[in-house]
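Rotation project, supervised by the postdoc (A.L.). Task for the rotation student: set up a whole-complex structure prediction and record inputs and outputs verbatim in this book. Inputs entered:
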Amino acid sequence: MKLLTALRSELLKTKRTAGFYFTLIAAALIPAIFLLNILTGGSDLAAISKDPLNTMLEMDIQRSGLVFFPIFVILVCTLLPQVEYRNNTWKQVLTSPQTKANIFFAKFLNINLLVLLFLAANLVFMLLVIVVTHFSNPALNLLNQPLDELRLLVRIGNSYVTMLALCAFQFWLGLRFRNFIIPIAIGFALWFTGMMMTFEFQSGLVEFFPYSFQILPFMSAFQPKMAQVAWSSAGYAMLFLLIGFLDFRSKRMNA
Amino acid sequence: MDHKPIIQTSGLSYHYSRDVQTLFNINLLVERGSIYGFLGPNGSGKTTTLSLLLGLLANQKGDIEIFGQRLHANREAILGKIGSLIETPSLYGHLTARENLEVYRKTYGASKARVNEVLEIVGLYDSGKKAAKKFSLGMKQRLAIALALLPNPDLLILDEPTNGLDPAGIIELRALVKKLNREHGMTILISSHLLSEVEKVASHIGIIYKGKMLFQGLLSELQSFQQKGSRLLINTSDNEAASKLLQEYHPEEAEGMIAITLEDQLQIASIQRKLMLNNLDVYLLQPEESDLEQLFIDLISTHS
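Outputs recorded:
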């Protein structure tokens, strides 16, 4: 109950911040590019000729998941804790009658709500693109195609779970550093390392490296190992949250 | 006034780094119903002490009891009855005054009516949809006080609340502090580096200097101590003759005038009478204002 009260405070703080609008804009980017490509007769039209409805959704999740989604998570994990640093409000938060555990986990839940909002908004925007495509390209007959709901849910679920480790680590960094450049720089460097390890070096270590996890659902070689990757991500997330919480608990407010 | 202590610390010490000790054996005693002025120059350890009282810093040595309970065993229950403002106002700039209070309303278990009440008390009821970042410093300070008042606290801790306020804002704040103490029975611990500021509102004074408590007691006790050591400056038509006349007061020469160390205010009247009866024209008869720095020096020399 007290955690919900703390979460309510966090949600109120997020009101009218860049975080909320940033989520919606980030979620709309890939659907918007997709729409432009379709309307201008780009290569995507040829790519979706077979099973167009499910292929369009698959392409959206893949394109968002590789670049925009991890960048969004890195930025939002930094932006939200910055609300307290920017407004000099840590003192007020830490002298209010709530446990540090509630403060810490309410902030993490708030970030996760934005992450889920990103996924939901991305899906909604993509459905809008599908509706527009249906009318601009009647031959595809998109709205009458069968939808593979289970596959869609598994894809979205995998995107979320494989992002948890990265999210927890970035959240810890975002809380730890007053200077927001540091967590963003570390996040981008690690994300780029994850990409390089997966595509350039094709390293066997990617299934142990949290910043590669979000790429693996889109690689056919890792499909049989997805359950293991998901558990690894959840395990890392718990570890990073524990370390982050211990660090936060010892947080000293300089007088 | 109930004289039970609302805050009691014993042997409180703190260091930020191994080599630099910030607080030494602080024994703070704040009585219920009092306005306690916590006085000291910048860097003397006021904010560190207040941060320890609010649990912002981990206690390293000594005990803290608030409302008769140990702080670290009852942190949440104690903080629920304390309103605080530490240094600069802690506000969310993108939110309105009402939204800032709404963020903490449920945390403190306050009603919606209480939000209106505290906005009314600090005169921000009509601040409308203006974001806090567009407030003047005085308005921000008042909103921060509204936030501190939200839980209807038994104890209000204000750290340098007049910082950055204009004279009108300082007078308003002083009146508000007195009103909260008188009408709402709040115990108030207010820190400042200005003696003149604190003595206008406080019933009790604690003086901290270089991390050590130099004085703690009633304001009247401090005032008598201050008067005891203060000097009287005298300038007459014939200072040489005046010096001879006032030999019993051990006069000293001070920048072309005579300076006498006062024991009490009655001496001023008696000196004036003596000078007049001996046909000396008195141009100046002025008790030298003992500033905080001088008071500290006096207290330090008393302690040593």
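Student's summary: Chain A has a mean pLDDT of 91.
Supervisor addendum: The interface with chain B takes residues 5-6, 8-9, 12-13, 15-17, 83, 86-99, 250, 252-255 of chain A (CB under 8 Å).
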